[in-house]
Description:
By secondary structure, this protein is of the alpha+beta class. Helices cover 28% and strands 22% of the residues. It has a 6-stranded antiparallel beta sheet, with no helix packed on it. It has a 3-stranded antiparallel beta sheet with strand order 2-1-9, with no helix packed on it.
Amino acid sequence: MNTRTVEPTRFAAIQGASWTIGSLILFSVVFLTAAGCSGETDAKPAGMQDKKFPVMKSAQEWKEILGEDRYRVMRLHGTERAFSGEYHDYKKKGIYVCAACGKELFSSSTKYDSGTGWPSFYEPIDDESVGESRDESYGMVRTEVHCARCGGHLGHVFPDGPEPTGLRYCINSISLMFEPAR
Length: 182
Ligand code: FE
């Protein structure tokens, strides 16, 4: 093989790779800056990005329906401050439904005091009510949970709950609405 013909090819390949990497970095900076400023981009975990749900709406529609605080938690995957929500110490008997679409999610009969400052349940009301996704944000690997009908973010599930499931569904109060037992 003639090195005089190989070298320019290698040089071109290196140049091409450098240009590609440079473009990717530039694109990332522009994209992340735009996302950070606008607040419009869904901050969903990777496992949530392409999921389809029976109830789907645009970001603008969800904003109008949910209001600013609920939108931040349910659509941008935010977290309410511990002990700040309406239901962390709530003991009435009834059903907790999705604050966005009204789907029944949890029963008060599975609610317990986890001491975390967020309403905690050891299981959802049925197998179809809550979906899960892998959440790798903040340098942790957690299991995110959301409403199976509208995809609204609820919280996370951890393997440190009480019997009979050993699970702790740690849920934002603002993602729920309570319907008292009749
Ligand atoms: Fe929902």
